Predict the structure.
Amino acid sequence: MGLCARTRIASSFITEAMRRGEMNSQALRREIVKYCQRTWDRGWVANHDGNLSVRLDRNRILTTPTAFSKKEVREEDILTVEIWTGKVVSGRHKAFSELSLHVECYKTRDDVNAVLHAHPPVATAFAVAGIEVETRITPEAVVSLGDRVPLAPVAIPGTLESAQQVRYLCNVYDAMMLGNHGVLTCGTDLEQAYLRCELVEHLARVQRNAMLMGSLRLIPGEWVPELLNKRKKAGLGPEARKSPPVKSPRTLSQLPMDQLLPALVQQLKKD
Ligand SMILES: [Zn+2]
């Protein structure tokens, strides 16, 4: 084969790869706009609250811009941000101050392709009251989200402290509560991150209603190991993905939050 023919084939591969990359980017932008709208429709955000992102490739994510109602975000408003530097590499708007919360999830876990952060009112009320939303409301919730939805201590958004909390917690959990703030979920795609946020808000409603009735009876703690096994078989949770190597999140399940973060750090250091 002549050099010209080879060059032509190589360049057609590059053009095809670029075309696919561009199509992928457009489809992902549409996806972000769709879930921005849903997040707004559900009343999970007010004013400029909330932010959504998806992984574009190993090094870049697409994100919503700062200072936009989620009702108003359009495909052309989406930013491209470098994961490792946090720099905006394309887009005409500015990045939001909570970007580090998203970036930590992508840096920590290869399987995370989408992150959603919102302030759904009932779950956020739990974060304000300092009460964890329980997953042991139903067996299905333990399978879907694990043995708890951890509630991180209050931290100013955008600080190193808030980013570190997310880094440690997302090693084990796909959904977490941020103290006096809101909910952060991640997933293999935006739909999964959205559904996880929906489930957290739903559990918070049920828990609040049961508490108002004066009786919150959780499913027995002895069921949890079996349910976590089902979770693993469904390909969910840290044990199923084997990366990062957290050996037994079960041992963490009974720890209060102020001990959970140091315990996670310890375990990650050991591994
Ligand atoms: Zn927020």
